[in-house]
Amino acid sequence: MSDSLFTAKITQSHQKVNNFNAFFYKTLQFMTASSILLSLNSSMVVTFGFLIYGYTLAPPLLLAGFLVTFAVYGLNKVTDKAEDSINKPELVTKRTDYYLFASVVSMIIGLGLGFTGGIVAVIILVMPLILGIVYSIKICKSVPRLKEITGVKSLVVAISWALPGCFLPALFGFNILIAGCVFFFIFIKVFVGAILCDVLDVVGDASLGVKTIPVKMGVKNTKRLLVVLNTLLLLLPFYCALNGVLVEFLPVFVFGSAYGYLAIWWFTNKRCTRVSAGLMLDGEWFPLLLFAGLLLLL
Fold first, then answer.
1. How far apart are CA 281 and CA 86, in angstroms?
2. Are 257 and 237 in contact (CB under 8 A)?
3. What's phi and psi for 140, nearest 5 deg?
């Protein structure tokens, strides 16, 4: 083989790799920007709940969780266009009506699937929508949006995720000790993640007067707060061990806390990019679920 032919083949091979990398990057960017990855993550949260309870998965409820989450975050893209145009201008579209239409359709189908679990399942699924509306929309001039109240935004997001993750599986059998552990774990994980998202959006939020925790406290103090909150997860293994519940999942809770520390470090690192941060946070329940599943197989 001549040197020129060999060089041509090497160049062609490198071009294929570059094309694949570009396609992979754009796919990840699309999935994070459109909230598809985030919505899949919410289904993983519900799946995690079923796994912890030890119940057989209910696919319609998992799909319902995905669709409702997609609807709520689609609505948020419509109401938060001003903030997003500063924080992530490359991901903002002028046609917000697309998000609105997709959100309405997703919510209708999601709630319809929720009826497979009964009226209680529908109530659980509709709660994130109600909280999302109150959180995103200014109902009247004298009452601020929940997002404009420091800390409430992250609290609302954490509750919105913990409710279906904890109580949809509990429809098949309720145990107050297990439910309390599941709710606490999901709540702290999502609460920390919601504040981390605000760390990325601190410039846009500050310029528009949105008083998030990082805006009020600064990034360094917020990092200290997040470390403390994430450390609370380490109390869960001790509680479970003392009460003899979920003992087989103690490594999962420790792993979840370790993942939280890694996320806190990366989000406050200057090398952190929005795509890598979105991939790390929007997909954090995939490794957690995989680790929990492997423990059950051992």
1. 21
2. no
3. -150, 165
Residue (of 49, 37, 3) closest to 289 by Cα position: 49
pLDDT at site 100: 80
Single pTM value for the model? 0.84
Q: Is 155 exposed, middle or buried (0-12, 13-18, 19+ CB in 10 A)?
A: middle
List the CATH number of the domain containing 142: 1.10.600
Amino acid at 170: A
Rounded CA-CA distance 63/39 in Å is 9
User: Residue 122: pLDDT above 70?
Assistant: yes
Asked if residues 165 and 186 have their Cβ atoms less than 8 Å apart, the reply is yes
Q: Whole-angstrom Cα distance, residue 213 to residue 192? A: 11
Alpha carbons 250 and 97: distance in angstroms, whole number: 45
Q: Which of 163, 66, 52, 155 minimizes the C-alpha distance to 109? A: 66
Give the residue numbers spanning the domain of 176. 27-297
Q: Rounded to whole angstroms, how far apart are CA atoms 212 and 156? A: 13
Could you give the number of structural domains in the chain?
1
